[in-house]
Design brief:
Layout (H helix, E strand, L loop, with lengths): L6 E6 L5 E6 L6 H8 L1 E5 L3 E6 L5 E6 L3 E7 L2 H6 L1 E8 L7 E7 L1 H10 L2
Antiparallel strand pairs: 1-2, 3-4, 4-5, 6-7, 7-8
């Protein structure tokens, strides 16, 4: 049973209603737990905010209209345990601007991002 949220995804709908989905894994792997704990992705109607780090923090904001591609990569093992790597590419760069490794249920997160476009 998970006690601490690994990644929190917040989706604010256009009518002002806020829906918060907290994804908690059922399997704890100490290295994977710390790796995932340092990432936070918040989805708003007009922007996406990505925060990383535990002690030292960095924050990246991307306009939803600038998102060109959202991709999910999963190995066979990652598919079995329900995690994967989520990459978000924008119009201004040739490489993904945001890459989140070991994110729980990456397809659901991809669907939330694409639904906000």
């Amino acid at each position: 049973m998970a006690i601490f949220p690994i990644i929190s995804i917040m989706l604010r709908e256009r009518c002002g209603k806020v829906e918060k989905v907290t994804i908690k894994p059922s399997v704890w792997a100490s290295a994977g737990f710390i790796k995932r704990m340092r990432y936070s992705l918040t989805i708003y109607p007009s922007k996406l905010v990505f925060r990383s780090g535990i002690l030292a923090r960095s924050e990246t904001e991307i306009n939803i209209s600038d998102i060109r591609a959202v991709s999910v990569e999963q190995s066979i093992f990652e598919r079995f345990i329900g995690v994967g790597t989520l990459s978000i590419a924008t119009a201004g760069t040739s490489l993904p601007e945001i890459t989140i490794p070991s994110i729980p249920d990456p397809k659901k997160t991809k669907t939330l991002i694409l639904a906000s476009k």
